[in-house]
Amino acid sequence: MTFHTYIKNRKFMLLLLVVVIFLFNLNVLLDVSIKVAIDSLLYINILTVSICIVFILFVDYRLFKKEKIEMLQQIDPRISKDEASAGRLYEVLDQIQRESTEEIESLRDELREINDYMTHWIHQVKIPITVLEIIAQRVDEIEDEATLSKDIKVEIDRVTVLVEQALYISRAGNYSSDFLIEEINVGKIVKEVVRKNKYLFIYNKINVEMKHLDHVVLTDKKWMKHIIEQIIHNSCKYIAGQKEIVMYIEENEKSIQLHIKDSGIGISESDIDRVFDKGFTGENGRNRTKSTGMGLYISKKIMNKLSHDITIVSEKNKGTDVNLTFYKLSDYFTCIQ
Fold it and tell me: CB 119: neighbour CB atoms within 10 A?
């Protein structure tokens, strides 16, 4: 802790001391009733200043230094006494303040994200609930039990997916701590997602083709299932033509790439560069469905956190190809550094 720091910290006390000495001398010199020699007054001033200097250097400064060193070591135990004595207190405090400000801003952004999503989510979840209410009112009029059962299951699946999405979004501020990185088989994950959403494919009469998926990647299983499911639901929303979704893997020296390709209506050229932006729904989202514009944004965010990549290639009326890139072990550790 430098003496300059001490002076800055005690400047008002020192200024008060100077003012008191000055006023004392002024009072003695101006008061005619006090007879004192100039030599005696000078002697008193020198003695007073000397005592103050000795007290400051050998008592107050040392106590100040000890107090600040202890405070600094409480803030950061890794700092040694020598480092603390070198005057790192304000540097550490500034750093803590910057980190706190950044954390507060990050939390505000995350809360805004959750609030935006939940506002759209509430409107979305009302749709299947309303459909189920209508089905319940007409249950006696529907003779085909198979159709009735299928319709109910589809709407329940929609509610389930929306609830799961809300749960994932609620973890938006804690992605990294929620990760469990392990070796997983891409084919098994894809089959689990397809099996879970089988009524969605049956209801929309969509043919699903899976090939060359037996590859192992290093990732988080839970989040990857969520991302794949999000992409598949988007494909089902905008399906057209042959109503087909094809999933396959391409491999090169550095990565394994999972392609999820559909025969949908595609994405316009003006929208393709913005599909991962927060809240962006695009022409398709506005015209065909009520989209939150958060699904692909969150997917991109998670993929980046996992040091993976996600890209989209699409052409209007010719379908969409979503590419999930998993880097191989050597390149994965290069990416996360």
Answer: 10
